[in-house]
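Quick log. Single chain, no ligands specified.
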Amino acid sequence: MCGLVKTALLALTLVLTFRAPAAALTTRDMLGRPVTLAAPATRIVSLVPSVTEILFALGAEDRLVGVTDFCDYPPAARQKPSVGGMVSPNLEVLVSRKPDLVVATTEGTREETVAQLGRLRIPTYLVVAHRVTDVTALVSHLGELTGRRAAADALRARIEQRVDAVRRAVAPYRRPRVLYVLWPEPLIVPGRDALVTELIRLAGGESISAGDGDSYPRYSLEAAVAKAPEVIL
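-> predicted structure:
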């Protein structure tokens, strides 16, 4: 009997000692590419200012180990280590931060940078956000990737409630024609597929460049004036 007890205890010890590792976390980024992490990310480099802001809003700012020079909101984001610009971050500095997740964007990060991160086997989540629904989906994905799902659900609900409140508030009024200047020289404006174009409409305006096929077309000053904007932002 004593031998059986010892054998059972030994077997139990082996089971507890050599438990299978926790299942990896796998999701898809906004291009549909699989992104697999061993566990929720704890060392994130954000190459997208809006993602940096969302991570702070989720209470996951302690996971941020690197941001870009353009990540300036909330003000505390400026205290995070910088890896350089959005388009061409300093890859050596980025790698030195030992990230377990990099968040980049198809509209700001060079394809070569994304390819280099892939060769280094650093999990990279690519953001593509043209609509408010893309933003709320991104909030949910970041909540999943950081293990902050409850905070993400709450933030998503607040965003959706605020958008709905603004939509109802501006509904009775005429829509002014809006010129939104993303960059002054050369003059770059939001096109049909830009998130800003939808935000202008939700806020009660009508972007003069909403019909342009490119996401961020370039305008001459004469072309902008010819469209007779009533509001310039």
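The CA atoms of residues 79 and 102 lie 18 Å apart.
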